[in-house]
UniProtKB/TrEMBL annotation:
InterPro entries: AB_hydrolase, AB_hydrolase_1, AB_hydrolase_fold. Pfam families: Abhydrolase_1. It comes from the Bacteria. GO terms for molecular function: triacylglycerol lipase activity. This is Pimeloyl-ACP methyl ester carboxylesterase. Residues 41-271 form the AB hydrolase-1 domain. The lineage of its organism: Bacteria, Pseudomonadati, Pseudomonadota, Alphaproteobacteria, Hyphomicrobiales.
Length: 287
């Protein structure tokens, strides 16, 4: 296992964070770890097909001004070993094992999209483990339109190939001038890291994760009313991947949940409005 010690006064930006690895649940998981070594750590759980280089640097850096932030690769994704699970439940169990291997007894979770499914499942499976939960661009088990992520995504992925653009340009942002500007800026930020980049997800891993997403969309609703922890939910008002109605639904079902909906924004609303999202997330975590 690699270890990394931050020296007092040194601030490591996410684009410079070393690639680390740790064994848990019979697999070697890749992760990056920045921010102060005090308080409750924040674990970041990312979207379908995402690797360590798909976490938005200003969001990670902003959160790491006050919190230890750990970004992870799921099993079978990026530099993590093993085969990508075909269920959200397995991803949640992997993450619980990974948190234990890192030696944490209490964590905060920030889940985006698929990561939000995993974060909800962890909070329900291991209630004492999670202190606070941030759910972004995501929805509940059995949520509206979640099983259709594949049919919604494929045409836009093909469009990405044909226009030589990253599919996230079409999938995460609105087609307005505002959305297009935000998409370009976000995709540029993801290229900031020049060395020791993570491996991209394989087509097989993408298809396996898509199975997990589809089955999450088809499974019975979970008892979100049993979540007795602070929850912050954020999304754009026009999410075509995990329809925005799911964010409203989760906020209604989770006692005391806070809801933030960004105007003229899609699935990647928190990336478009990162300058607003980071202070909101920090004040939620620090409250």
């Amino acid at each position: 296992m690699s270890t990394y010690v931050s020296h007092p006064g040194s601030v490591v930006r996410y684009v410079d964070a070393p690639n680390l690895s740790i064994s848990a649940a019979g697999t070697t998981f890749a992760y990056r770890d920045i921010g102060p070594r005090t308080g409750v750590p924040l674990i970041l759980l990312n979207h379908w097909g995402a690797v360590l280089d798909n976490f938005d640097p200003p969001i990670v850096d902003g959160l790491a001004t006050r919190h230890r932030v750990i970004a992870i690769d799921y099993r079978g994704i990026g530099a993590s070993g093993g085969k990508a699970p075909v269920s959200v439940g397995e991803m949640a169990e992997d993450t619980i094992a990974l948190i234990a291997a890192l030696g944490f007894e209490k964590v905060d979770l920030l889940g985006f999209s698929l990561g939000g499914f995993v974060a909800q499942d962890i909070a329900l499976k291991a209630p004492g483990l999670v202190r606070k939960l941030i759910l972004t661009g995501t929805g509940p088990a059995g949520g509206k339109g979640i099983e259709k992520v594949g049919p919604v995504s494929w045409p836009r992925m093909i469009k990405g190939l044909l226009t030589l653009r990253d599919p996230k340009f079409y999938l995460f942002f609105t087609s307005t001038a505002n959305g297009r500007r935000a998409a370009k800026a976000f995709l540029e930020r993801l290229k900031e890291r020049k060395s020791n980049r993570d491996k991209g997800a394989t087509p097989v891993a993408l298809l396996r994760q898509l199975k997990a997403i589809k089955s999450w969309g088809q499974q019975a609703p979970q008892d979100l009313g049993s979540l007795r922890i602070p929850v912050l939910i954020a999304n754009g008002d026009n999410d075509i991947m995990v329809p925005t109605a799911n964010s409203t639904d989760m906020a209604r079902r989770i006692p005391g949940a806070q809801l933030v909906i960004y105007e003229d924004a899609g699935h990647g609303g928190i990336f478009q409005y990162h300058a607003d999202f980071v202070p909101k997330a920090l004040s939620f975590l620090d409250a």
